[in-house]
Amino acid sequence: MRNEADEILDDCLSRWHSWAKPQGHTTGHARCSAGMDQYRPSRQYDDSNGALDGDLEHMRCKQVDFDVRQMNQPHQTAIYVLARNLSTGYFVWANPRLPYDPEEREAIVREARAIITKKLLASGVL
Prior knowledge:
By secondary structure, the protein is an all-alpha fold. The protein has five helices and no strands. The longest helix has 22 residues, at about 100-125.
């Protein structure tokens, strides 16, 4: 039986994985002209256009990224695989660094979930 804390952690890891995915190479024009590069627009409407929410999400994901990178192996790998599975919605991804035995692998994932939950609670993300 899953509780609300597990669902919140799953949502947080899923959003972090989507945020952390490397963006593909794009070609085209620069985002702004060279003459306007130093211009910083007003942020007076950022509360209504969603930019503040995006900034908050970016800060949360940076903290999750930092906390995951501070974990030791194999727990770090378990979180990476779990986040990928949660993000895609299919629990088919695996990693050869984790044990092949499903019971051992599940025990490591449970330990990793407990470790990252404690870290995210301490950092104020959860």
